[in-house]
Amino acid sequence: MPEAPRRQSRIQKKNRETILTAALQEFAAQGYAGTTIDRIAETAGLSKPNVLYYFPSKEAIHRELLEALLDMWLAPLREIRADGDPLDQILAYARRKLEMSRDYPRESRLFANEVLQGAPRLSPILGGALRELVEDKAALIETWAEQGRIARLDARHLLFSIWALTQHYADFEVQVRAVLGQGHDPYAEAEPFLDQLYRRLLAP
């Protein structure tokens, strides 16, 4: 009979979270190639052997961060419901994606860096679970369009545009803030713009 997995102590859970938080900071700032276990350990305030006690390699840390991030990133898309009002559902999705860019900018940049490198550690997920979810929601959106409830459009490219327009504010935040100047809240100003944009695009 296989041995039951050991439960982690409170200190072990805390150390794992400390390591993952430090790694997120390093990966988002330096990219995968520029990040080392030594840098993660220094940022976490732990020794290198201590970090390696919890994670066998840099790749293992990176993979855990990406898998958790992708699950969080896909949650708003999963929430688009067939029994909801089409316009409300799509606008709520765009709004939630913008909020996630505001609240999780480092996570967004981590994901962007991975994709820009050819997604070597995410390709199976992108071509599997992500693609299946997009296909499912795209079919729902196109059904709404066929019913005349929203404009006819390519639902996949609609989703791509929402990703691009919302995640831009996190991935290029320095540029956005530099262009807008002091006294501007990019996310607060973007929300009504995106709402107006998609209302007009989706009007039947």
From TrEMBL:
<dbReference type="GO" id="GO:0003700">
    <property type="term" value="F:DNA-binding transcription factor activity"/>
</dbReference>
<dbReference type="InterPro" id="IPR001647">
    <property type="entry name" value="HTH_TetR"/>
</dbReference>
<dbReference type="Pfam" id="PF00440">
    <property type="entry name" value="TetR_N"/>
</dbReference>
<dbReference type="Pfam" id="PF08362">
    <property type="entry name" value="TetR_C_3"/>
</dbReference>
<keyword id="KW-0238">DNA-binding</keyword>
<dbReference type="InterPro" id="IPR050109">
    <property type="entry name" value="HTH-type_TetR-like_transc_reg"/>
</dbReference>
<dbReference type="InterPro" id="IPR013573">
    <property type="entry name" value="Tscrpt_reg_YcdC_C"/>
</dbReference>
<dbReference type="InterPro" id="IPR009057">
    <property type="entry name" value="Homeodomain-like_sf"/>
</dbReference>
<dbReference type="GO" id="GO:0000976">
    <property type="term" value="F:transcription cis-regulatory region binding"/>
</dbReference>
<dbReference type="GO" id="GO:0045892">
    <property type="term" value="P:negative regulation of DNA-templated transcription"/>
</dbReference>
<protein>
    <submittedName>
        <fullName>TetR family transcriptional regulator</fullName>
    </submittedName>
</protein>
<feature type="domain" description="HTH tetR-type">
    <location>
        <begin position="13"/>
        <end position="73"/>
    </location>
</feature>
<dbReference type="InterPro" id="IPR036271">
    <property type="entry name" value="Tet_transcr_reg_TetR-rel_C_sf"/>
</dbReference>
<feature type="DNA-binding region" description="H-T-H motif">
    <location>
        <begin position="36"/>
        <end position="55"/>
    </location>
</feature>
